[in-house]
Amino acid sequence: MKTSTVLLLTLGIMHLLTMVNIVFLDGALNDLVFFFNTALFFFAFSFYLWKREKDSKETPPTSTKAKK
Known about the structure:
This protein is an all-alpha fold and 68 residues long. It contains two helices and no strands. The longest helix has 29 residues, at 30-58. The radius of gyration is 19 Å and the shape is rod-shaped. The N and C termini lie far apart (40 Å).
């Protein structure tokens, strides 16, 4: 799955949790929603770093010198 897709899904879930908490529960679960949003943020950040490291290992370094 593409990194941008995972990050956008994570962001959507975070906003959905916050919206449900505010609209339907009148902010009754603020602490729990904050906990889940923080956990989702750390998941997304670690996924991004993992994919970045994985992509940099797969891409061979290119030489800047012209070949003769």
